[in-house]
Amino acid sequence: MLYESLLLLGVWAALFFVPHLVIGVLWQRVAPPAVLAAHLILAFGLYFVWLWRRAGQTLAMQTWRLKLVDTATGTTPTLGRALARYLLCWPSLLFFGAGLLWSLFDRDRQFLHDRLAGTRIVQLPRA
Protein backbone atom coordinates (compact mmCIF):
# COMPACT_ATOMS: atom_id res chain seq x y z
CA MET A 1 0.00 0.00 0.00
CA LEU A 2 2.91 2.34 0.67
CA TYR A 3 4.30 1.79 -2.84
CA GLU A 4 0.82 2.32 -4.33
CA SER A 5 0.55 5.57 -2.38
CA LEU A 6 3.80 6.82 -3.88
CA LEU A 7 2.56 6.07 -7.39
CA LEU A 8 -0.71 7.81 -6.62
CA LEU A 9 1.22 11.05 -6.18
CA GLY A 10 1.78 11.05 -9.95
CA VAL A 11 -1.88 10.31 -10.62
CA TRP A 12 -2.85 13.06 -8.19
CA ALA A 13 -0.54 15.54 -9.92
CA ALA A 14 -1.67 14.71 -13.45
CA LEU A 15 -5.41 14.33 -12.93
CA PHE A 16 -6.09 16.62 -9.99
CA PHE A 17 -3.41 19.13 -9.05
CA VAL A 18 -2.43 20.38 -12.52
CA PRO A 19 -6.00 21.12 -13.71
CA HIS A 20 -6.83 23.03 -10.52
CA LEU A 21 -3.53 24.89 -10.66
CA VAL A 22 -4.26 25.99 -14.24
CA ILE A 23 -7.80 27.09 -13.29
CA GLY A 24 -6.40 29.02 -10.33
CA VAL A 25 -3.74 30.77 -12.38
CA LEU A 26 -5.91 31.61 -15.39
CA TRP A 27 -9.18 32.52 -13.66
CA GLN A 28 -8.07 33.19 -10.06
CA ARG A 29 -10.69 30.72 -8.82
CA VAL A 30 -10.56 27.86 -6.36
CA ALA A 31 -13.17 25.14 -6.46
CA PRO A 32 -15.23 24.57 -3.31
CA PRO A 33 -14.01 21.74 -1.02
CA ALA A 34 -16.87 19.43 -2.04
CA VAL A 35 -15.90 19.78 -5.72
CA LEU A 36 -12.24 19.17 -4.90
CA ALA A 37 -13.11 16.01 -2.93
CA ALA A 38 -15.42 14.71 -5.67
CA HIS A 39 -12.75 15.38 -8.31
CA LEU A 40 -10.10 13.56 -6.28
CA ILE A 41 -12.34 10.52 -5.73
CA LEU A 42 -13.22 10.48 -9.43
CA ALA A 43 -9.58 10.81 -10.55
CA PHE A 44 -8.41 7.96 -8.31
CA GLY A 45 -11.44 5.92 -9.36
CA LEU A 46 -10.54 6.29 -13.03
CA TYR A 47 -6.98 5.15 -12.30
CA PHE A 48 -7.92 2.09 -10.25
CA VAL A 49 -10.99 0.90 -12.13
CA TRP A 50 -9.35 1.35 -15.55
CA LEU A 51 -6.24 -0.62 -14.58
CA TRP A 52 -8.16 -3.34 -12.74
CA ARG A 53 -10.41 -3.81 -15.78
CA ARG A 54 -7.53 -3.67 -18.27
CA ALA A 55 -5.20 -6.21 -16.69
CA GLY A 56 -6.33 -6.75 -13.11
CA GLN A 57 -3.28 -4.87 -11.86
CA THR A 58 -2.25 -1.36 -10.92
CA LEU A 59 1.39 -0.36 -11.43
CA ALA A 60 2.27 -1.28 -7.83
CA MET A 61 0.45 -4.62 -8.13
CA GLN A 62 2.57 -5.45 -11.20
CA THR A 63 5.72 -4.84 -9.20
CA TRP A 64 4.62 -7.19 -6.42
CA ARG A 65 3.11 -9.79 -8.82
CA LEU A 66 -0.39 -9.31 -7.44
CA LYS A 67 -3.56 -9.47 -9.51
CA LEU A 68 -7.19 -8.66 -8.81
CA VAL A 69 -9.57 -11.35 -10.03
CA ASP A 70 -13.27 -12.12 -9.90
CA THR A 71 -13.84 -14.59 -7.05
CA ALA A 72 -16.31 -16.71 -9.04
CA THR A 73 -14.46 -16.95 -12.36
CA GLY A 74 -10.80 -16.21 -11.60
CA THR A 75 -10.72 -13.74 -14.51
CA THR A 76 -10.25 -9.99 -14.64
CA PRO A 77 -13.14 -8.40 -12.74
CA THR A 78 -16.09 -6.94 -14.58
CA LEU A 79 -16.61 -3.19 -14.63
CA GLY A 80 -19.31 -3.56 -11.99
CA ARG A 81 -17.09 -5.56 -9.64
CA ALA A 82 -14.11 -3.22 -10.12
CA LEU A 83 -16.30 -0.19 -9.48
CA ALA A 84 -17.90 -1.85 -6.43
CA ARG A 85 -14.46 -2.67 -5.03
CA TYR A 86 -13.31 0.91 -5.49
CA LEU A 87 -16.39 2.43 -3.88
CA LEU A 88 -16.34 -0.06 -0.99
CA CYS A 89 -12.65 0.48 -0.30
CA TRP A 90 -13.26 4.07 0.86
CA PRO A 91 -15.28 3.20 3.97
CA SER A 92 -13.08 0.15 4.44
CA LEU A 93 -10.00 2.39 4.69
CA LEU A 94 -11.50 5.48 6.28
CA PHE A 95 -13.15 3.63 9.15
CA PHE A 96 -9.75 3.24 10.84
CA GLY A 97 -8.70 0.54 8.37
CA ALA A 98 -11.33 -1.87 9.68
CA GLY A 99 -11.82 -3.37 6.22
CA LEU A 100 -8.11 -4.16 6.03
CA LEU A 101 -8.00 -5.63 9.53
CA TRP A 102 -10.91 -7.84 8.48
CA SER A 103 -8.42 -9.93 6.46
CA LEU A 104 -6.75 -11.08 9.69
CA PHE A 105 -9.94 -12.92 10.64
CA ASP A 106 -11.38 -13.81 7.22
CA ARG A 107 -11.09 -17.52 6.34
CA ASP A 108 -9.78 -16.64 2.83
CA ARG A 109 -7.65 -13.69 4.03
CA GLN A 110 -9.71 -11.24 1.94
CA PHE A 111 -10.22 -7.57 2.68
CA LEU A 112 -13.80 -6.67 3.54
CA HIS A 113 -14.25 -4.64 0.34
CA ASP A 114 -13.01 -7.62 -1.72
CA ARG A 115 -15.40 -9.99 0.05
CA LEU A 116 -18.34 -7.64 -0.58
CA ALA A 117 -17.38 -6.86 -4.21
CA GLY A 118 -16.77 -10.49 -5.18
CA THR A 119 -13.08 -9.97 -5.94
CA ARG A 120 -9.84 -11.25 -4.50
CA ILE A 121 -6.12 -10.55 -4.82
CA VAL A 122 -3.96 -13.45 -5.95
CA GLN A 123 -0.16 -13.83 -6.06
CA LEU A 124 1.16 -14.51 -9.56
CA PRO A 125 3.99 -17.02 -10.07
CA ARG A 126 7.50 -15.79 -10.82
CA ALA A 127 8.17 -15.38 -14.52
Structure description:
- With 127 residues, the protein is mainly alpha-helical.
- It has one domain (2-123).
- It contains six helices and two strands.
- Strands 1-2 form a two-stranded antiparallel ribbon.
- The chain is elongated, with a radius of gyration of 16 Å.
- The model has no long low-confidence stretch (mean pLDDT 93).
Strand content: 5-15%
| Individual helix count | 6
Tell me which oligomeric state these chains represent. Answer: single chain
Q: How many DSSP-defined strands?
A: 2
The whole-angstrom Rg is: 16 Å
Protein structure class? mainly alpha
Main sheet: which strands, in order across? 1-2
Low-confidence stretches: none
Mean pLDDT: 93
Which features does this protein show?
two-stranded antiparallel sheet, 127 residues, mainly alpha, 6 helices, 2 strands
Give the SSE map.
Elements: H1 2-27, H2 33-54, H3 59-63, E1 66-70, H4 79-94, H5 98-101, H6 112-117, E2 119-123
Antiparallel strand pairs: 1-2
Helix pairs in contact: 1-2, 2-4
Short synopsis of the structure:
This protein has 127 residues and is mainly α.
